[in-house]
Design a protein that fits this description.
The protein is an all-alpha fold. Helix content is 71%, strand content 0%. The longest helix has 34 residues. Keywords: Cell membrane, Membrane, Transmembrane, Transmembrane helix, Transport.
Amino acid sequence: MRHGKYPFIIGFLAIPLLLYAVFVISPYAQAFYLSLTDWRGLSNRQDFVGLANYAELFTDTQFWRAMGHNLALLIVVPLFVIAMALLFASATAISRVRGSRFYQVVFFFPHVLPVVIAGILFAFLYNPQAGLLNAFLRVVGLEWLTRAWLGDDAVALPAVMVVMIWSAVGFYYVLFSAAMKSVPRDVYEAATLDGAGRLRTLVSITIPMIWESVQVSYVYLGIAALDGFTLLHTMLPDGGPNRSTEVVAQYLYRTAFDEGRFGYASAIGVTLCLFTLVLAIVVMRFSRREQVEYA
């Protein structure tokens, strides 16, 4: 049996590894190869240009401006989503308030809604003439706050951030609630006897004990922030006023399908993939903590 162990394992892994190589690794390899060419997309001609696309990308101000928008999303969206999800989860999962199951359903509902539908709904909400937001501000006497929310380059990106936060909080609220319920009640009772308040308990006890969930959540939210294509292309397909909301994925799309520069667009995609990989490695490496164990 020992002599046949390795052929047995290889026999089981061969087909899954082959499928992974064909459908996962191969597209990455093809994208990297295309990034080294000047392929225009409508012909089979692919002249090899080496690193010329990456050299151009390094000095491309539009690319770096789009990357700046992604970085703004990367800072704001995960921070607010994780903070709000932790607060909501601690209020229901730890305190055991009545109707906590109902709150989980209500908070999770925006995550169930498809991103495209959410983008369309909020585009109507932000409409300067018929939108509910401006109508509400007029009713409560704050007409001076009304504006074209998606037409003002100063507030267009923050308006989209609100939608991203709204749609993501519910999922991480449920995730953190499940993690908090696994923490022994004795720990919280001891903290209460020692005079620790809710905020102190959250910071000193809850977060360290569910740190792995928080860490992974930031990675996933960071990946979503470095993408953001679906929502932004639904609400602001032209990149917003003065390209004030255009992210790298939208710039990639415009470069490929509007300008026909598929080779250069591939270089953008490969660069974005590397940024995402570096983000995941940095977060997992520098946010590593000693695991808290409890019986």
